[in-house]
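Morning F.,

Quick status update on the modeling queue. The single chain you submitted on Monday has been processed. Sequence for confirmation:
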Amino acid sequence: MASSGRLMGTIGEFINMKTMARGTVLLMGLLALAGCGLAEADDAPAREEFVRIINVEVSAIVAETFVEEIRLTSVAMANRDIMVAAEESGVIRELYVDRGDWVSAGDPIAKIDDRLLAAQVDQARAAAELAQQTWERRERLWEEDRVGSEIAYLEAKFAAQQTAAILSGLEQRLARTVVRAPFGGVMDERHVDVGSMVNPGESIGRLVDLDPIKVFAGVPERYAQDIEVGGLAQIRFEALGDLTVEAPIRYVGSTVNPSNRTFPIEVELPNPNHDIKPQMVANMAVTRRRVANAIVVPQDALIRVEDGYVVFVVVEQGGETEAEVRPVELGPTRRNLVVIESGLKVGDRLVVVGQKSVSNGDRVRVVGEGE
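Structure tokens below.
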């Protein structure tokens, strides 16, 4: 037993010595690796600092003429739009046109029964002929032979004139039994049928003249000094495939509508094919003023800040391309364009794409440029 204890002690000492030896070897290896790493670190060059470069697109600033516009909503109206009315009473005996038919000025539209008036015209014609012959005979007797009295002479004269006037009036009434178009246009509506009884003033149908066509718009009163007869207006009809027509203003209203504080203007457009129909809505742009040699930029290039607006331009600094911030003052606008009163000059390279991603002094790379 004593020999067994000594043997176990010897084995334990051996294990402890082996473990220490392994630890010593491991420690020496780690120190060697650390030394190599420090040596390599001392020999490696210093790494460069990371610099962000942002891709942008720019547009070169040029001077141009800027047209400021007033944008309005307008509506088309027929040149003439009336209800054709009967002038005599009677029964409709014939209709010459139907809805949608085109007529010229003076064309017959409807026929009113004229038999009673025709008989009255025949009676009046006979009376007028008798009175005329009586007057002619009394005139010869009185002026040449002094036969009869002056009263009889005057009575015959005025009777002839009276019957002639009655005949003329009845003939005009007879002619009015044919209802005629007062102007050329389309018969857009028909309000009677054959056999209908009409009275004077009763509508036969609706007649519409579509060439030319009128376009009306209401202009806010603050532009009263900017609008005048002869000024140009551009009208665009979205319903007709964005048909755009330019024409001068032919009428400017003299009073302001108290309900919406606008005054009316009118533009007349040719409409030979009758494509523009009454009550069509159109967008109207009226020229307010022209600015010569203006610096015009898209509104998308502007960035709103606390005290106004700024833009970014590309400049060269020390051989590097950088973004530079510029505060600007705005002038008149049109659609997506705005005039820059100050802050930019001709030749500047304005950032139009990427301006919201840059700050003053950032490095940039121009990937697209235009005017």
